[in-house]
Amino acid sequence: MIKELILKELREHLLSLRFQVGFLLALVLVSAAAFVLSTAYQRDSHELFQRQRQEDAFLAKYSHLNRMGAVVRVGRPPSPIVLVRGLPRDAGVETLNANPMLELFPPVGLDSIVGVVFSLLGYEGNRSGLGGRQSPTA
Question: For residues 41 and 76, which has the higher predicted lDDT (pLDDT)?
């Protein structure tokens, strides 16, 4: 009896228009975020490769072997693709006491928008599905 009731409720919520629209929105957002972040990562990797080639060409043309140790390499690898980020590992009490706003609220980007939309979808799913309440119908 309880199994049938659970299956009925689950089927009802999975087939509801609210769930389907939310799932479609989540799928589109994650796909767009993955595409944008991977494109940016490829662009950054290509720019790093170009900078390294230019730097190597410059050093080969204008430097001597005895002076190459003092040359500072400026190229850094691109940052990894992250959809949801938390506090950095080096964020200690001193960092948070000095100015916590920069650590707690990073600049808004596509990853922040994805996080907010998923939070809202989770809240709505909890309110309508797990709370047992149905939205009033007109």
Answer: 41
Q: Which residues contact 30 (CB under 8 A, 6 or more apart)?
A: 83, 114
Residue 84 has pLDDT above 80, yes or no: no
Residue 105 is given by DSSP the state S
Q: Could you tell me which residues come within 8 angstroms of residue 81 by beta carbon, excluding any fewer than 6 positions away? A: 34, 37, 38, 41
Reading the block at residue 24, the tokens are 């479609």
Residue that has been written with the tokens 């964020």 in this structure: 91
pTM recorded for the entire structure: 0.59
For residue 119, what are the CA distances in angstroms to 7, 31, 65, 102? 25, 17, 56, 21
Q: Are 106 and 85 in contact (CB under 8 A)?
A: yes
How many CB atoms are closer than 10 A to CB 8? 10
Q: Write the pLDDT tens digit of every residue in 97-125.
A: 666 666 666 667 777 788 788 888 888 77
Reduced DSSP (H G I as helix, E B as strand, rest coil) percent helix, strand, coil of the chain, to 5: 70, 0, 30
Let me know if 125 is exposed, middle or buried by CB neighbors in 10 A (0-12, 13-18, 19+): middle
